[in-house]
Fold these 3 entries.
Entry 1:
Amino acid sequence: MGTWPDLLLSIGVGIALAAACGLRVFLPLFMASVLAHFDMGGIGLRDGFGWMAEWPAVIAFGVATVAELLAYYIPLVDHLLDVLAVPLSAVAGTTVALSTFVDLPPLLSWGLALIAGGGLAGLISTGTATARVASTVKTAGLGNPVVATVETAGALVLSLLAWFLPVIAIGLVIVLLVAFVRLGFRRRT
């Protein structure tokens, strides 16, 4: 078991990557896969998740990422993806969080990955799906490519920050969650 700062860093990386899965399901998995494959900074992957850094996973995540990114620019397909993305993002968020919880005991790793990783990814994905519906209603779908671009950029930036500057990434996730909660309360009142 690592030191407390290392454990907290490991948790921060996993939660920030999981949050990015709420914006794009495959992009954070692809980024973690590539960065782990080339051993570029970050904290590495947990035992049993070395497969994520192997070429077959890098290629599979890369193809899935390109397909997902392109599909969000096709009208109606973007809404179908949102329906699929909510549960898939929870699975991806759980997986990517668990993969980075390097020195945590299995029970704690799984609990945190399911609740914090999968829960956060699912929550964010639900929020982005809601934003897409609002965009469709207000702009007749013409604003959806802008929403898709912002989501993709957010997933990319958050994934890179999670890997290289996890403290900043966690701060950004907290700010986004606070904004998300405030926006939700404003809509109810």
Entry 2:
Amino acid sequence: MELLTAEQLKELQDKWRISKVETILSEAISIFGKDYISFATALGAEGIVILHHLYQMKADIEIFILDTGLLFPETYALKEHIEKTFGIKIKTYSGISLKEQEQIFGKRLWYRNPDLCCFIRKVLPLKKALDGKKAWITSIRREQSLSRANTETIMWDNKNNLYKVNPLAYWTWEQVWDYIKKYNLPYNPLHDKGYPSIGCMPCTTPVYEGEDWRAGRWRGLKKKECGIHQ
């Protein structure tokens, strides 16, 4: 389904590496079409930055969240607040219910087999969300972890068979917060409590000085990604 040649993809990567976020978003929507590109957000600080850009642009594309049923109360509250503040609707995609999961796989699968739990609660719902799309927008950054260090502003997503647009790939954590403060944007209060990366309650802990941004995810395990960005 690839729409771009290797040369065109490299040209976009080089161009967007020094482009403003609104330019990347505008051109991506133009290239793929507003009905064939969507923005996936976990409502972290980076996601708020992109949401605000889309709001300012009046971009008419689907915005969605993967609701695992295990998100922090603060995350659900922020979703409602963002929808009211920006006047937008954030669509929800989810997998089987927690009760169904327990009946099939037993209690607390996230502790016993977190990879399987993430696959059921995040990877499968994402595939549903991206069905029929040509590209999706994320808010991941190179600086977040070693596994994301080679992230480009646009890349081919082999796992989902479409393009992946990452407007904040080259942004720093300081730039993210400078933007949030400049526009006085709402954000998850857990960020003020040592959570730079916020996922599901059972699998997310605060990050301590000297640790990388994703050290609080699946603490004690080698696992650092849920599977949607691998």
Entry 3:
Amino acid sequence: MATILLVEDTASERQLMTQYLQEAGHLIIDASNGTEALNKLESTTPAVIVTDVVMPGMSGLELCRNLRKNPSTKDIPIVACSSKNQDLDKMWAMKQGVNIYITKPYTKEDIVNAVTSLIGQTA
């Protein structure tokens, strides 16, 4: 079992992802935005972070940049989930520090396999 930080602003989407990852045996800590995620990272170190890209306030990519600049979070693997599915969007996300980019709609297998593949790795 791994601890996963899930950052998603849409409650129904957050609930669905939480269910998928809990069914796979993971402990989920959730945040509804990037600022809340950064606050939760002050007291926990997840094995993987899963973040939406398009969120009000701090975007998922802005969150990634903050994580990569911080010595205590720079190596945590990141999965980005987004409705943006252009090659340029994916390329830009990878440049911001995303390890795996999944486009919505995704399947349970998509999200579980992405997280599982990153557990125990560093960015």
